[in-house]
């Protein structure tokens, strides 16, 4: 073949690339109606139940105010860099977590892993939302049902408050078979959960929770079936409302006797705790879970942004607000726990709990002792309901948008049906969690599904973008959006510091992840195995998709195919035509720039010439 023939073949490849129509799955994509839609949705997504019921406990356990130091350090080293990375690449491409891997098709399974993690967490997270709905309904009574022992679910072990439990314990008095329990504990265990003795006994379905779970998924559907246009409007109420309730609860809390002692217990530093590696590990894990990296939600929400939105600014704002919310929530929680300890005549460490034990036992018991207790109970559980739904919206939208972006011609016009089917399937999968033994199932899902696998997904995401796609190229993409390159420090954070921190957190999570337990009860071997399967299922798509992609890519050797799969696909780039034209101009003129999955390197000067000719033919200036 002559050189002229070779030139013609190359020219035809370029013409095919440059003349192809705009990518169909992004052209008709919805977007936020305003900048605040994105910002409020991100805040609502990042600020979850963990900010309310886990952070204050970790702070107390890990040295009080001293815990703020490792927490803020990991926020700066890991939380902010990953948030900036995900928001930037999502906004640049206007694609969801699976389709976005056009920039490095070999690792498409990483995006699928994100969707799997979010889908699993959606199942049990909405069960927690269902609990808050039930408590909310029960709060609309003159006398809160968990404030006394005269209900059908109470037994001889019930006492009206913690102070009576402590008095009885100090006298070494117990009932015939068990130690005493507070009315709020019995309401939670005997009535809401109607808990069995273990996961082996699932018991019957709790019809009250069945109704509440149905309502929870109905709320998700109504807010998401029309996409982000409706969601953005909803978040103008749903995001700020919890802060109004927290402020109201804090104002009421600090007026209570014992509140100051509770707050002191929360913030007074115990510096010796900083020498404990567990404290640093807990701080890193809390940042990882609360900011929302590697779940796919940040990429999804950023993908609906205007191309020129200042992602740099937003990436600084949201993590700081999230961190501040956690610290602020601690003051709200410990002011009331201080009051509870004062009323019981004991110390705060006797009443402090975390997780469901704080939200559904300790805090409701304290609220029951306040004047106008139903009002404060309604506000508290309405706040929990809103916070839970805010996070649920982000996770569920991740799955919906991923399917639509992968199959746009088939699913874009069927979003309502897809949302309905998705909600119904997730609802059915959540039914085992609302049986009498459902809390044991939920604990397994929470224990394993989003622990070590989440860190591995995040590590791969950071390494692929920083090392394979390249920080220099990524900087140019960001510059194209916001008008200037980020500071060089992000180059070192994304390439070295953040991956090292993530790897350390991953090792810590593996080392400290013991067998699942609930309330001191051990699980059978088969349940633990099931938990590990749940944890691994989100990692399976990564090697599986690598194999599929390599098989489906042309090339004489595996190495050649892998090289092609680590170069951005020909349809990678901004979604709008005018932005894509500027993107092509911004690329470095080298052979790798115009490589694609279906062909090798091409003559870059020819490519740029043909692109200019196309623009001139369309009457568009460079």
Automatic annotation (TrEMBL):
Places the protein is found: Membrane
PROSITE patterns: NA_NEUROTRAN_SYMP_1, NA_NEUROTRAN_SYMP_3
Record-linked InterPro entries: Na/ntran_symport, SNS_sf
Protein name, per record: Transporter
Membrane topology qualifier: Multi-pass membrane protein
Biological process per Gene Ontology, one example term: amino acid import across plasma membrane
Disulfide bridges in this chain: 149-158
Source species: Mytilus galloprovincialis
Protein family per UniProt: Belongs to the sodium:neurotransmitter symporter (SNF) (TC 2.A.22) family.
A GO MF term: metal ion binding
């Amino acid at each position: 073949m002559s050189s002229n023939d070779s030139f013609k073949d190359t020219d035809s490849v370029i013409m095919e690339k440059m003349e192809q129509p705009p990518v169909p799955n992004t052209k008709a994509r919805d977007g936020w109606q305003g900048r605040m839609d994105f910002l409020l949705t991100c805040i609502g997504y990042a600020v979850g139940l963990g900010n309310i019921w886990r952070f204050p406990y970790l702070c107390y356990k890990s040295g009080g105010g001293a815990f703020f130091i490792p927490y803020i350090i990991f926020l700066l080293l890991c939380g902010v860099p990953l948030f900036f990375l995900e928001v930037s690449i999502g906004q640049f491409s206007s694609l969801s977590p699976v389709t976005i891997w056009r920039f490095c098709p070999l690792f498409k399974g990483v995006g699928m892993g994100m969707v799997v993690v979010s889908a699993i967490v959606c199942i049990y997270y909405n069960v927690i939302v269902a609990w808050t709905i039930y408590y909310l309904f029960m709060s609309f009574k003159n006398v809160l049902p968990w404030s006394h022992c005269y209900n059908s679910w109470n037994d001889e072990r019930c006492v009206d408050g913690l102070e009576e439990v402590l008095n009885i314990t100090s006298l070494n008095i117990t009932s015939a078979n068990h130690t005493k329990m507070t009315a709020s504990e019995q309401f939670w265990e005997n009535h809401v959960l109607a808990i069995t003795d273990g996961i082996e006994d699932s018991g019957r379905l709790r019809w009250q929770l069945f109704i509440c779970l149905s309502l929870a998924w109905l709320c998700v559907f109504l807010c998401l079936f029309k996409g982000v246009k409706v969601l953005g409007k909803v978040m103008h109420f749903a995001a700020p409302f919890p802060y109004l309730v927290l402020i109201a609860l804090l104002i009421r809390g600090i007026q209570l006797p014992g509140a100051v002692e509770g707050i002191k217990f929360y913030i007074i530093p115990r510096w010796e705790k900083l020498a404990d590696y567990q404290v640093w590990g807990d701080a890193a894990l809390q940042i990882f879970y609360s900011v929302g990296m590697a779940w796919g939600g940040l990429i999804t929400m950023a993908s609906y942004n205007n191309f020129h939105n200042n992602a740099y600014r937003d990436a600084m704002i949201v993590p700081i607000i999230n961190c501040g919310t956690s610290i602020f929530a601690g003051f709200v929680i410990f002011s009331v726990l201080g009051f509870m300890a004062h009323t019981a005549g004991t110390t705060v460490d006797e009443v402090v709990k975390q997780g469901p034990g704080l939200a559904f036992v300790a805090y409701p018991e304290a609220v029951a002792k306040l004047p106008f207790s139903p009002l404060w109970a309604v506000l508290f559980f309405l706040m929990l309901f809103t916070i839970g739904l805010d996070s649920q919206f982000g996770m569920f939208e991740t799955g919906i948008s991923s399917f639509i972006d992968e199959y746009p011609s088939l699913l874009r016009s069927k979003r309502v049906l897809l949302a309905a089917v998705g909600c119904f399937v997730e609802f059915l999968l959540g039914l085992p969690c609302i049986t009498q033994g459902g809390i044991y199932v939920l604990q397994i899902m929470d224990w394993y599904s989003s622990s070590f696998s989440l860190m591995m997904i995040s590590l791969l995401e950071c390494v692929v973008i920083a090392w394979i796609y390249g920080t220099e190229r990524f900087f140019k993409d960001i510059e194209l959006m916001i008008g200037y390159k980020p500071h060089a420090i992000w180059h070192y954070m994304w390439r070295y510091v953040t991956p090292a921190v993530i790897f350390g957190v991953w090792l810590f999570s593996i080392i400290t992840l013991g067998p699942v337990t609930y309330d001191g009860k051990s699980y059978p071997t088969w349940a633990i195995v099931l938990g590990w399967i749940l944890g691994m299922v989100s990692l399976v798509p990564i090697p599986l998709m690598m194999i599929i992609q390599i098989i489906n890519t042309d090339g004489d050797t595996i190495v050649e195919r892998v090289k092609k799969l680590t170069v951005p696909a020909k349809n990678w780039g901004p979604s709008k035509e005018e932005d894509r034209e500027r993107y092509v101009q911004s690329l470095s003129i080298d052979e790798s720039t115009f490589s694609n999955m279906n062909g090798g390197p091409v003559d870059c000067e020819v490519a740029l010439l043909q692109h200019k000719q196309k623009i001139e033919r369309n009457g568009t200036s460079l």
